[in-house]
Amino acid sequence: MQCNALHEAGYDIVVYDNLSNSSHEAINRVSMLIGQPVEFIKGDIRDAESLKKIFSAHHFFGVIHFAGLKAVGESVAKPLLYYNNNVSGTITLLEVMKEHSVKNLVFSSSATVYGDPESLPIDESSKRSCTNPYGQRKLTVEHILEDLAVSDDSWNLIALRYFNPVGAHPSGEIGEDPNDIPNNLMSYIFQVAVGKLDKLIIFGNDCPTVDGTGVRDFIHVTDLAQGHVAALNYLDKQASLNEDSMTQNSVGFLPINLGTGKGTSVLELVSAFLDVSGQAIPYQFTDRRAGDIASRYASADKAKTLLGWQAELLITDMCQDTWRWQSMNPNGYNVS
Ligand code: WQD
Q1: Is domain 2-328 annotated with CATH 3.90.1150.10?
Q2: Is 297 a catalytic residue?
């Protein structure tokens, strides 16, 4: 998804991925969609030698850093894995970038860093506090980036705080294919829709929300990808301004929300799925999930003001595009 958006924006890309939670088939499909092979190198972000080889062979403008594990439950069960992969991996990447004077980074952060918000909508100055190791490691990386920016003012470090990404590429060729049991609400809805689960368990119907179920800011992955292009374009523009004015004004550490600014409840999402697919999702209420927050949605003003970006796609688009992906690929990327 991101590769398509970057290609359409005119960027040349190199994809580096250990495929621990993705598939090479996704790369094949991106190549098919953009009409040319994607340069792909299989490797681990913790492998400094492998990274050094790649940085020596290319002249990179910047890095978009997606390489991180993202399952809340797994982070509780295996905290060391999240320190090692998400934190040590990032440190290795930053050290190699520094060694090769590549100082532009767009980091895949998360609205999870906000924890349970004191007020809504959540803007970038809202208090950060996390209730699970996954979110805490995202915050750890943000602290690393903040400290790095203070220590060396040549860094340009944008942390994009995703709210709840859902959806799939409109072609139906690219979508989420969780290697293990699904993590997020939309994945569960689709597992019920294709008959892999017999009903959706809804965690709590006693939240202080429109209908008692949890409220989230669901954002289409296509909008999310465009947000990354806008962030890279912003860094590119800053670099050009510096070049023209012979100055070295750096961006430093810059957190930006990527959300729609609208909240949608669990039941509203289930209803939107029915409208789009004609398929009712059987569900059963149960207790609220430990650590769950009732309501979280973004203030997206900063992204609009600074990056000239705002989400365009609707909940129905997210349902339609995921349904198309799921229907065309009931077994995900497993094409055997
Ligand atoms: C959304 C709502 C649940 C599943 C996410 C990701 C996490 C991280 C942070 C990226 C909540 C309810 C869910 C189900 C349900 N992602 N729900 N039944 O809680 O915002 O956390 O954002 O950084 O990986 O999980 O999203 O999709 O888990 O839950 O009722 O089977 O849906 O209670 O209200 P959440 P979610």
Answers
A1: no
A2: no
